[in-house]
Design brief:
By secondary structure, the protein is mostly helical. It has one domain. The protein has six helices and no strands. The termini are far apart.
Length: 155
């Protein structure tokens, strides 16, 4: 077996397989990061009218630093949002503009080029749902309940 045969049959296929594996790994990594970015944006958009009442929203905000680690502008807007929601300055409502701007920057970094700030500001939160699904504090207990949570039956 000559040196050329060794190159053709062993070394070239190994190098090609190695390059293919590296490219596949990088593609998979990029795809996964983009998927995570989309997921965070979706959660933040879904709860943009509910905000701090939702645990998923809080988790998504806390993940922005890691998932958008390469986006300095988004991270800066996130930390500005955090500082604007501190107890002593939250009343000025400035944090909503920062939050909306952060969502817009996130959408653009993911590839949603047609999303506008107006799209982000508009959300669906009908008042009729308050009538249809009253708060738990406004609901009454069923009158025919045999056992309540604080009374155990005799056994």
């Amino acid at each position: 077996m000559t040196t050329i045969d060794i190159l053709e049959k062993i070394i070239v296929p190994l190098i090609a397989a190695g390059i293919g594996a590296i490219l596949a790994f990088r593609y998979q990594n990029t795809l996964e990061l983009k998927r995570e970015k989309r997921q965070i944006l979706q959660v933040l958009m879904m709860y943009r009218n509910a905000g701090a009442n939702e645990l998923d929203w809080i988790k998504a905000l806390n993940a922005v630093d890691v998932v958008f680690h390469d986006e300095k502008n988004i991270r800066a807007l996130l930390h500005t949002f955090f500082s604007q929601t501190e107890k002593h300055i939250i009343q000025n409502q400035q944090y909503w503009q920062t939050y909306n701007q952060m969502l817009l920057e996130m959408a653009r970094s993911i590839g949603y080029k047609d999303v506008t700030l107006q799209d982000i500001r508009d959300f669906y939160a009908p008042e009729a749902l308050k009538w249809h699904y009253p708060l738990k504090s406004e609901q009454t207990e069923p009158k025919d309940a045999a056992v309540t949570s604080d009374v155990l039956p005799n056994t």
